[in-house]
TrEMBL record:
Keywords: Disulfide bond, Signal
Domain Glycoside hydrolase family 19 catalytic: 50-72, 165-175
Keyword Disulfide bond: yes
Pfam families xrefs: Glyco_hydro_19
Superkingdom classification of source: Eukaryota
Keyword Transport: no
Residues spanning the signal sequence: 1-27
PROSITE patterns: CHITINASE_19_1 (PS00773), CHITINASE_19_2 (PS00774)
Name of this chain's protein: Glycoside hydrolase family 19 catalytic domain-containing protein
Length: 231
């Protein structure tokens, strides 16, 4: 016969064990979700001649991830991974593009907000989209550079030349501007990334494309997409 204190201890151990197991399942590592098969399944759909084919790698993503422990901690890790890579897939064309298409020649290509005195533009540099999330504008390049450790205002091209920094800029933008709204549904993440142009009927085709990628990856990872998919 077990004494009451012993029985209480065993019950406590059992309950704690169940809770730890539950937490460990929910907090499944990002690396365990973004497998070679998952990553290569995305990049493998791009054209073999794409510049991104020789630039974006799973190893670079995982190395960049070490600097952002907050990634994968919102709502459900698998759902967050699905959302992140849905946007990355759309922004880069399955990891095909490192820089915005026609970015250097696009009208107003400098993407300079001259009213932002905290992060003033270098008149000889352009801040068009680069990297997995297509980081744009001086007010993003400046703080991203300060946080990550590169000169975002004077050397924005670093985002297109250094694969680890490139992924770091995407993760930096994600944890600061997108992750906080992830609990509101995937639609809120679209709004956080390109809502001014795409949401409220601005470009329903691109919104649907993002949703399609998201639901595809959710199904692939075995997680419910949740509500509020559109913006």
């Amino acid at each position: 016969m077990l004494f009451p204190n012993v029985m209480k201890g065993l019950i406590t151990i059992f309950v704690v064990g169940v809770l730890v197991e539950s937490v460990s399942v929910k907090a499944q590592s990002v690396a365990g979700i973004v497998t070679d098969q998952f990553f290569n399944g995305i990049i493998g759909q791009s054209d073999p001649g794409c510049a991104g084919r020789n630039f974006y790698t799973r190893a670079a993503f995982l190395e960049a991830l070490n600097s952002f422990p907050r990634f994968g901690t919102a709502v459900d890790t698998r759902r967050e991974v699905a959302a992140f890579f849905a946007h990355v897939t759309h922004e880069t064309g399955h990891f095909c593009y490192i820089e915005e298409i026609a970015g250097p020649s696009f009208p107003n290509s400098q993407y300079c907000d001259s009213t932002n005195t905290r992060f003033p533009c270098n008149p000889n540099r352009s801040y068009y989209g680069r990297g997995p999330i297509q980081l744009s504008w001086n007010f993003n390049y400046g703080p991203a550079g300060e946080s990550i450790g590169f000169d975002g205002l004077n050397s924005p091209e670093t985002v297109a030349n250094d694969r680890v920094i490139s992924f770091k800029t995407a993760l930096w933008y994600w944890v600061n501007s997108v992750q906080p709204v992830l609990g509101q549904g995937f639609g809120a993440t679209i709004r956080a990334i390109n809502g001014a142009i795409e949401c409220n009927g601005g470009n329903p085709a691109t919104v649907q494309a993002r949703i399609n990628y998201y639901t595809q990856y959710c199904n692939q990872l075995g997680v419910d997409p949740g509500p509020n998919l559109s913006c």
